[in-house]
Specification:
Length: 292
């Protein structure tokens, strides 16, 4: 998605990979990619997650593994931009290259499941909240460890992740033609505009004008760099925000549908099911059942 390439310094004389606890006002809000794997665990933060052409909401205890070259960013909700000293995004981020323990280490039989998982990370991997929570202490503790203990702990975390169920995020046919482009601010700005205005009717002309293009040029551009149409991406954003409202508020399904920009509840239900494969009411019921 025309992302910015970020040069990471994961290796030094003391370390073979990088890990850090960060407490910031909001997460880094520009599309970017890098040659390292990124393991990100959200301790506290809420917003919209962009991994390749996958757009979903995220909240606390979100665990994602992003492969090399895959564009991504986590857009915090607007509350995180209001300079509230008591509201911070808290994350653990780990960057590593595949050969951080040697070029052939993951070829040994015992590492077969991890090698398979890493090969799939070029689409982004998301782990269910119950498994992310199980791994939370290990992921947080690794920051405090030193030298060989960090290496052992990261390998243990990767092995545990590989043995648990996970889902792939970006579509299989997601294009990588964006690499090398310097236009990351445009697509990031478009998505941020859609997030901020999801609750109202956004016409094709309005979003094209925002991007300083005519409607035809905008449609071609948007499809090329995101592999999706404008309407599909807007719907993904609206459904993602609706998911958060379903589990975090007491609003009715009808109220949530209207609040997310849908003009009729039947259309909201239909579009929600197209994205999540279940209805809004089933989604909320499933969440409540898993919670208990």
């Amino acid at each position: 998605m025309e992302p910015k390439f970020l040069q990471k310094n994961t290796r030094s004389a003391e370390h073979s990979f990088y890990c850090k606890y960060a407490e910031v006002a909001h997460t880094y809000d520009q599309f970017h990619y890098h040659k390292e794997y990124e393991l990100l665990y959200i301790i506290q933060n809420q917003g919209t997650r962009f991994i390749g052409d996958c757009i979903e909401s995220f909240t606390h205890n979100d665990l994602v593994l992003v492969g090399p070259g895959l564009p991504h960013y986590w857009q915090s909700d607007k509350e995180y931009y209001q300079n509230d000293p008591f509201l911070k995004a808290k994350v653990i981020v780990i960057h590593f290259e595949q050969d951080f323990v040697g070029k052939e280490f993951f070829d040994i039989p015992e590492m077969n499941m991890v090698k398979t998982m890493l090969s799939k990370a070029n689409r982004g991997i998301h782990f269910p909240i119950e498994h992310a929570t199980d791994l939370e202490n290990d992921i947080i503790d690794i920051v405090q460890k030193r030298k060989w203990l960090q290496v052992v702990d990261l390998l243990a975390i990767l092995c545990q992740m590989a043995e648990r169920p996970y889902s792939l995020l970006a579509s299989e046919g997601f294009s990588d033609s964006y690499h090398g482009s310097n236009n990351e601010e445009r697509i990031t700005g478009i998505f941020n505009f859609l997030i901020q205005n999801h609750h109202r009717n956004i016409t094709l002309k309005e979003i094209a004008d925002y991007a300083n293009m005519n409607s035809s040029a905008f449609c071609r551009y948007f499809k090329k760099v995101t592999s999706k149409t404008f309407s599909d991406s807007l719907n993904d954003i609206r459904v993602g925000i609706a998911c958060k409202k379903l589990i975090n508020t007491e609003l009715s399904i009808a109220e949530i549908g209207y609040a997310c920009g849908y003009q009729s509840i039947s259309y909201f239900n239909r579009q929600f099911k197209n994205v999540k494969k279940i209805s809004p009411s089933e989604y909320k019921m499933k969440y409540l059942m898993n919670k208990h």
